[in-house]
Amino acid sequence: MPNHKEHPISLTEALKARSFVYKHMRSTSLTRYEGLSSLVNADVFVKHENHNPTGSFKVRGGINLMHHLRNSGTEGVITFSTGNHGLSIAQSAAWFGLRATIVVPESNNPTKNRSIRATGAKLVEAGRTFEEASMVVKELMQEHSLYYAHPANEPHLINGVGTEFIEIIEELPDLDAVILPIGAGSEAAAATIVLKTINPDIQIFAVQAEASSAAYQSWKAGEILSSENRTFAGGFATGIAYEIPFEIYKNNLADFVVLSEEEIYEGISLAGYYTHNLLEGAGASTIMAAIKLKGQLKGKKVVLQFSGCNASPDEINKAYSLESFTNGWVDK
After folding, report:
1. CA 305, CA 4: separation in Å to the nearest integer?
2. pTM recorded for the entire structure
3. What is the DSSP string of 182-229?
4. pLDDT digit string (tens) for 38-52?
5. Nearest CA to 179 among 191, 167, 194?
6. Which of 49, 170, 221, 263 lies at 20 to 30 Å from 146 by C-alpha?
7. What is the pLDDT of residues 88-99, one digit of tens each?
8. For the chain, first and last CA: distance in Å?
C-alpha cells in the first residue's frame, strides 16, 4: 500500500489531479468586479470557490485524496475539522463509496454540522476547539481502522487544491498578485507550488484572524508557533501552523494581514454589497485584506479568493446589519 503522507507535492501532481477533480466539479468562475477595482485602485478579480460543491475550495483536495485512497483499497476515513475540510472529506468519501467519520468541536457552526450529516457521514462532536477535537481522532482511527485525513499535512489535499490556481493562471496569465485566507494552510501551499513554479514574480498575500493568528505568528518568527484560537470564523480557527504547508509557503508570501473580528464581519458585508455573494468570514476576508494592502496593489491585476460560503445565520445577520452592506466601504 502506498504511503500517502509522503506523496510528492508539485505542479506536476496538481496537473494530474485535474482529471480526478473534474469528474465531480467544474472550474469555478473568475470574475472582474468594477466596484472592487475602484475601491482598491487595482484590476480586481474574484475566484469564486464559494460556488463549489460543499461551498468551499477544500472539496478539490477531498476529491483527489479519496481517489487515491479508494485505489489503494482504503474503506474508511476520519478527520477533524471546524467544517469546510470535514464537509469536503465527507462529501468526497460519499462520492467514492468510502465511510467517513468527522470530528468537530462541540460549539461548531450548526450550518456546517447539518451539511456534514447530510452526506451520510458520522459526525462526532468533541472538545471545545479545533485542537481538542483532533485528540479524539487517533482513538477512533485505531478502533475503527480508518485512514486519518489530516486537514493540512496531506499531500493529496494540497495537490487537489492546486487545480484552483491552474485555472486562475490559465485564464489570467498576466496575474500580478493573489490574496488568500490561511487557516491550516493547504491553500497557501497549493498557490505556492503552482503560481511560483510558473511565474516566481506573482505575489501571494495572506490574511488571517487576529484572534487565531498562529500561521501569521509562525510566518513572522520563521518557525512553527501555537497561539490562542478565539475567532468566530471557522476557516481561520486553528491554534497552530502545520508543518507541510508551512514549509512550502513560509518563504513565499509577499505580506501577511491580520484582521479583527469586526473587520471580518465587515468583509462579509462588503462581499454582499459589491458581489452579491453570501460568504463566511474567512471567505470574505480577502476584501478587507485588499483594502489594507491598497498601497502595494495599486495598478496591479489581483485575484481575491472567495474560499467559502458556509456561514451561520447569526454571522450573516450580524454582518448584514452593518452600514457597509447598504452603502459599501467608507474610509474610517
Report:
1. 28
2. 0.95
3. -SSSHHHHHHIIIIIHH-TT-EEEEEEEGGG-HHHHHHHHTS--B---
4. 999 999 999 999 999
5. 191
6. 49
7. 999 999 999 999
8. 57
